[in-house]
Write a structure and sequence with these properties.
about 290 residues; mainly alpha; rod-shaped; Transposase
Length: about 290
């Protein structure tokens, strides 16, 4: 077993089967004598529903996903060279929409429909993959344990989502527009960013705790399986000993019956011998009497 093939199999199952599959693969690696591989497999984290949906795209919609990641690479190249994006933004939006529909269809086919929050997380992950090369590699591999988002600097013209439309200016309200101008600086944005980062960190912490709980559950399940196998082995030994005891008891009873019959036969033989001896003695006395009178 290789780690890559094990991970591919593991992240290809539905989330509810992840822990059982991980336990089985780790046990197989341990049975093969590769404790390091077993530990590495045991450390893999169960994916969230949205991450699982993105992993589905890597397996079942790799062509469209590859085109999106290629568009992202071209956008990053354009950003680095300072050239214009052309129609790359439109291509990205079109491909993201196609992949979102495909993710919903794939998840629904397996009985795990995506709710609004999961759809947003899938979209955030796809968008982030066009900006961050590392996230793009993770998405392409199809082994995401949780959704991704890009929180770093994004240059102008490379926004992950369209900016809200600005209200048109009118000549009737020049003073109001001047007063509103400072608000356009949006001083509250850093707070929103920090809040989003805090939420993301809390989500990551909760996901880690869930993974730890699942790992503990898997460990306990493995210990329970080991104990059950030991109990089954002990039961087999008990069964074998009980069978041997029953056979020995039957042999003892049979021997006892044979001994009883032999004792009865001996008693009858002794009685017959006494009768024969008595008859012989009587015949001898009779012969003596006859000789005396003769």
């Amino acid at each position: 077993m290789e780690f890559s093939s094990a991970a591919d199999e593991l992240y290809g199952v539905v989330p509810e089967e992840f822990v059982a599959t991980r336990t089985r693969l780790a046990r197989e690696a341990k049975a093969d004598g590769d404790a390091a591989l077993a530990k590495r497999i045991g450390g893999l984290r169960r994916p969230t529903l949205s991450a699982w949906a993105v992993n589905l795209l890597a397996r079942s919609a790799s062509d469209d996903l590859g085109r999106l990641l290629e568009v992202g690479a071209r956008m990053r190249e354009a950003w680095g060279s300072g050239s214009g994006l052309g129609d790359l933004e439109q291509q990205r939006a079109r491909l993201v929409a196609v992949l979102l529909r495909r993710a919903g269809d794939l998840a629904g086919e397996q009985g795990r429909p995506l709710r609004d929050q999961a759809v947003r997380e899938v979209e955030d992950t796809l968008q982030a993959a066009t900006v961050d090369e590392d996230i793009a590699a993770e998405v392409r591999d199809g082994r995401l344990p949780q959704p991704r988002s890009h929180t770093g600097f994004v240059p102008a013209g490379f926004a992950l989502a369209p900016e809200p439309a600005q209200k048109p200016k009118t000549e009737k309200q020049p003073k109001a527009e001047k007063k509103a101008a400072p608000a356009e600086k949006k001083p509250e944005r850093p707070k929103v960013t920090r809040t989003s980062a805090a939420r993301a960190k809390r989500a990551e912490t909760l996901a880690r705790r869930a993974d730890e709980a699942e790992q503990a559950l898997a460990d306990k399940a493995e210990r329970a399986d080991t104990a059950k196998r030991a109990a089954d082995d002990a039961s087999a030994v008990v069964g074998r000993l009980r069978h041997e005891l029953e056979r020995a008891t039957a042999e003892r009873d049979s021997a006892a019956r044979r001994a009883e019959r032999a004792e009865q036969a001996r008693t009858r033989a002794e009685e017959a011998a006494r009768e024969a001896r008595k008859a012989a003695e009587e015949a001898h006395r009779a012969a003596e009497r006859d000789a005396a009178h003769g």
